[in-house]
Amino acid sequence: MKLLTVNKCCCWFDLKYGFLTWAIISLVFRLTTIVMLFYSDYLPIQQPEARVYLKSITPLMGYFIACTIALFIAVKGVVQEKSILIYPYIVILVCELTVGLSLHAILAIVVSWIYFVTFLVAGAAGIYVLLCLISLYKQIKRSEENNVKSKSNGANLA
Fold it and tell me: Where in the sequence is the domain holding 44, given as residue range(s)?
């Protein structure tokens, strides 16, 4: 079974630079979220219920830190052209997309139709980013396999 692949990101960017651009935007978002969660203890909140709520999102900060580290590793894999470093972030992206789209679908049914619009937009963008990342992964994997074959052919000729 051949999965759909793309050759360019956003129709005109190279996959590598398209992913790096998206990764920088995502890193800014994730680091901003981590800083906001870390400093939420120091907010001047008088209601004790709000403090309990803020304490309950501490595991979320751990998740964001782990995903940020995985994204840094994926960026390193793209820059160094090592496919094995990209794969963990593909798994994280699939999980985030699944959970995010499920949450949007539930909110669209329970709360408001506007979440259906965000479901469509977030779903399309997320699936496209995943498709670009998988295509980049395959491209780097092929490049690695060709380098191994050329090295083995060079060793056979010598």
Answer: 12-153
